[in-house]
Amino acid sequence: MGMMLDTLPCEVLTMIADWLPPASLRALGRVSSGLYSVLVPQLYRAVTFRAASEWALNVLDVDSFLLHHGHSGTTSFLQHTRHLYIQAPIHLARFNRCAYYNIFRTAGLAQGPSTLGAADETRAHEQFLDDIADQLHVVLAQLKPDGLRTFQWRLGTCIPAGVLDEGGYLSRRQNRLTCLSLVTDGTCPHACHRLDSLSQLSSLTKLEWDGIQHPAEVESLRQCIRRNWKHLNDLSIGFVLSPNARSLRWDDLGLRWPGAGPCDEDESTHFPPLSTLSLSKVSLSENLQDYSSFRSLQALTLRDCPNVLRFLRSLSGSRITLNLREFELCCDFLLHEPDDDYEFSSVVKFLFSFRGLQHLRLRLSNFPELGFRVEDAIRHHRPTLESLVYHQRQLAPIDNEGLFEDDRDVSPVWIPDLPAIVDLCRVTTLALCANPSAARMCLQPAAANSTLQVLHLRFSGAERMHWDIRHEVLALLRKRRGGCSPTDQVDEVDEVAEIPVYSDGESDHVSFFDHYFDCSMTWQSDLQKVEMDTPSAPSEAEDFVAFAEWAFGPSGLPALQVLAFGDFSHDDRYPGQQFVVRREDRSGPCSGEGSGPSVCNNHNGLSFCPASMDDPSIWDGVSLDGIRLLTACPDGGLIESPYEL
């Protein structure tokens, strides 16, 4: 087979490589030098470096990568890299992530943490960034000049020197960069604002920046947008509140066509509008000077934006013809001005103002029930709707006396009428805040002809931090399977994600097996402990398993591939409050390629098995972006401010 592939043209081999998992690419690359030269570069087109802990953000896995994947002869594998990602978890530390507030960074200073002065605190911050810079520049030095297309900074910290400052690496050596994604620490009191060369990047088609707070950052963003306005298609902005800047207004960015009004078609030809816009906590005006920025938007996301209700009312009443295909809104009615009571219907009116929506994602909190018929607005887009996310929350008492209230998940009253609201023979992905029993009741009448491929039963992870759904469901599955051997643990899906994974997504064989055998007894004892600690009748876990048995069974949803339960906000912020199962592949292990050892062997005929979000094969056969569905309408921001608490 390898010799046959070796005779194929490079173009055909490249197309084949796009469909193969990393392990298969690596194996084929060893067959011959010809295959190696074509296939191996595909492995390193996208490289990710991670800080494993958000409490040690200056410890990246650069050394591990260079040890296992450093060079091939005299050439660095990083010469093939086109997409570079620098990432870290953003779970508990959602503000003040830089060195200034981390005690371990004061080690080696003359004074102890309790007596440090401002000068030493500033020095600690500089040492922290220098530590990151030393590791990062080792990577940047091995990249091909002008070869990079994507650069992502997702550490949630200030950016070190030599990257985006004056004369920095990206503007000096990577002039063909088309995608820039930044998550920075706007709450850092020692933010260095090393962003002077941001406006020198002139080829960007996609710009994302979350964590903006300081005026200098806003100015850098404004200049970068203006520099790339002619070809910028995708713009995402996330603001973080501060005591000095309570809001960032959309008008502050000056995003309007030069010298043009809504009807100036000649100017709009030279300055094409955005196709995708995402705003988080950016204040919107109800009296925009120019709506042309929204004229040709195909996707609009508004998350917790001040004044959004008045903005939607104004936009729906404008003369702009909207061509939206995707719309996402996260809004808490209680956070708007007291005189906005009449604005609660703005969401419905906006959705009625146009047609053709294919993907609708709503997270609505504390909206009045009386007169707010969002289901009618959803039905308005029934002929074209392919995916729907709906999450509703309301204030509810949290104590027996009713003295204290907090937001709680609410199942929509219109859930029983779902088949009349959305076309279940057309919708392929669906996410609802509903318990499994209610979901089955509304889906069962149209199940035989259902086209659902991904179904997500949502709840808020922060509301159920005391409940570890993952372990409860796994313990229940283990009971139903009648026990597993250490090499057949259903719980392995939880642990595989902790195995070190390098740039190509393939774990080193030695480290994998060492990890597996060292931890197998721990997994077994942990699972036994969970089984003992779990109540004899965990009703929600049993409801979910019963729903999965029906959904993947002969009388269930025939097209369903993935069933998710819980909160997937910002990826794995709530790992214990999320669980995923997939339809079992009868032709092989249900864990799929890249998930490690088999997670189950289907001892008692179950038609589904646990799945890992780290396994890309779970989305095989899914026509839409499944991860986008699960992470839509998140609970809270990626980067938050202490002034919001």
UniProtKB/TrEMBL annotation:
Transmembrane segments: none annotated. This is F-box domain-containing protein. Signal peptide: none annotated. InterPro entries: F-box-like_dom_sf (IPR036047), F-box_dom (IPR001810). Residues 2-47 form the F-box domain.
